[in-house]
What does this fold into?
Amino acid sequence: MKRKIIDLPRSFAQLTNDWIINVRGKSAGEGVTGTGQVAYGAQPRWETTIDLAAIGCEGQRTWNAIQSSMRGRINVLRVPLIDLCPVDLGIPGLDEWSISHIPHSDDTPFSDGAYYAQEPTIVMPSLLEAGAEEMTVDTSSVNHVLEPGMWFSHDDWPYRVTGMWEGEGGATTFAFEPPLRRDIPEGHEVTLQATALMVFETDLEGRMPLERGRLITASVKLLEWTSRP
It folds into this structure.
């Protein structure tokens, strides 16, 4: 079955919360010594919730289109992961929230209202194999702003930085979670505008019942698509 990937607008991505790694541990019962036993799978996944409370009529129409396009749990949602504390990426006059709206030199957009985009990326200096928990890279291209708690991704596989150590010659080592899910070849780029491929937890996620005189309230539970090819 071919699954369509649908891009979630950044305005909705800002409504995501509770991004957490679910290691999907299963209890194996209590051991003879009285200690608990837990079995863990090899593929942890990210989970999050979109809060759709009071998104307004225009947002409701947009969400209805997205939800219908998802066809329950069949299709996949590409979700931007937004660091809610904007940082200076070394691009004059721009921050993480605005690097997708770069105008011409006279501050005007294209005739159709579109802008240039400059994605903050870091080049991988050598092969990083699946299972790695650290990477050593030169972050000068993004003004050395990659810090613990921030996101990066490669091929829509997202990671969160958990630690950093500065080395010689401008190289910095970063620890991240979860462990690398796929190889990153030498010369490939990782992006600080991280994205994740997510699916609905149930076929009826995001139902928005309307009641006269009451605000629309709904939440959507999303699970990372870890079984992707």
